[in-house]
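Box 3.1 A note on notation
Throughout this textbook, protein chains are presented in two layers. The first layer is the amino acid sequence; the second is a token string describing backbone geometry. Keep the layers aligned when reading.
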Amino acid sequence: MSETSAAFVRLHARLAPVAFVPEVRLHQADEPIGLWELTEGEFRSDQPPPFWAFAWAGGQALARYLLDHPEVAAGRRVLDLAAGSGLVAIAAGRVGAATVRAVEIDPRAVAAIEINAAANEVPVRVELGDILDGDAGDADLVLAGDVFYSQAMANRMLRFLLRAARGGARVLVGDPGRAFLPRDRFRRLAEYDVPVPPALESVRVKHTTVWELAPDRRTDRG
């Protein structure tokens, strides 16, 4: 973990319970727009926006589902994709996952996940990198919260998740009605009304669904 990234996380985010998942504490930004603007210039130079500083609705719903149904992750080898703050990974660890691997492309997110996992006393192996053109390794449970927010991301994510499912992993997704979720590929497991910062979503509550990827043995066309 970069000390510079860790210092940035601690300076701009405050450790507090997550609104819909109070069992978990995360470093969260008090003022979303201010932090977004602070990093915007770097984003134009390939620095991602500070997704790690907020508990997004999809991740909150997925974490809530894991905590309410601990048998889903207990004893499993878990992979949390585009892990953001680490909320979903931490929830999996809290219910007894055998191992938890959280993957992110943002060095500050990696720092945030490590700091948040330590604050919750949950072991999480954090990895910096883009693995979507690869596979899920030895994971037998793959989790992704709020990842279908753009067409490009949705296309790559779905291909990865389908490969993971064909390899034998169970795949769960939390999604608050994003436009690019391919709903015909999933079956509904649970629904929640999740509190969110109005500055991020323009509403105070997002109706959010936990989905399971349906088995699909067809050849991946790319």
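Residues 3-213 form a domain with the Rossmann fold fold (CATH 3.40.50.150). DSSP finds seven helices and nine strands in the chain.
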